[in-house]
Write a structure and sequence with these properties.
- This protein is of the alpha/beta class and 206 residues long.
- The chain has two domains: 127 residues, P-loop containing nucleotide triphosphate hydrolases (Rossmann fold, 3-Layer(aba) Sandwich), CATH 3.40.50; 68 residues, no CATH class.
- The chain has nine helices and five strands.
- 30% of the residues are buried.
- This is Dephospho-CoA kinase.
Length: 206
């Protein structure tokens, strides 16, 4: 079990899984059980919202061309820039990671449920598990991951494989996680097992 690196007011469950594993469906189940959910992906978008410190710094660094006509971030242009320039990628990470972590910790502390779920695709890769008391991996076989992602995002097999290759392997996540929830089955079965886990987490969080 992990000890939080920075103290939070709440008992934190880290929820993770590779692309296409169904993290959102499971986090929605936690919300239906009355548990607060903090989503790292949503926070990553919030810290680059119009007029934010993050977006203003990005526009100053890369120029106004990095913005769309409505003033929002041109994510495609930004991806292209950092893909071809490692210095720019490191600069961007140095800017955004502290902003994201600060907001995550604030939201974890402000949660009012019995415990709080931190959803992060790169929970282990970005060491966000240091803030968690326990971790839950949403797990599906690789072929299922690929099929679901292609269908959901309408992208090529090559793109999906590239994304999966950039993430920690399924096997390594399985070794690191405290709990594993198989999401390659009927959602009613997934929900039934999640309710059992939820009861355990309520017990741990007391």
């Amino acid at each position: 079990m992990n000890k939080p690196a920075t103290k939070t007011n709440n008992w934190v469950l880290g929820l993770t899984g590779g692309i296409g594993c169904g993290k959102t469906a499971v986090s929605n189940m936690f919300e239906e059980l009355g548990i607060c959910v903090v989503d790292a992906d949503i926070i990553a978008r919030q810290v680059v919202a119009p007029n934010s410190i993050g977006l203003n710094a990005i526009a100053e660094h890369f120029g106004e061309s990095i913005l769309l006509p409505d003033g929002t971030l041109n994510r495609t242009a930004l991806r292209t820039k950092i893909f071809t320039n490692n210095d720019d990628k490191e600069w961007l990470n140095a800017l955004l990671h502290p902003l994201i972590r600060e907001r995550i910790l604030t939201d974890l502390n402000n949660a009012t449920s019995a415990y709080v779920v931190l959803v992060a695709p790169l929970l282990f890769e970005n060491k966000l598990n240091a803030y968690c008391n326990r971790t839950l991996l949403i797990d599906v076989p690789l072929p299922v991951q690929i099929e679901r992602t292609i269908k959901r995002d309408n992208i090529s097999l090559e793109q999906v494989n590239s994304i999966i290759a950039s993430q920690m392997s399924r096997e390594e996540k399985q070794q690191k996680a405290d709990d594993i929830l198989n999401n390659d089955r009927d959602l009613s079965l997934v929900h039934a097992e999640l309710v059992v886990l939820h009861k355990n987490y309520l017990h741990y969080a007391v």
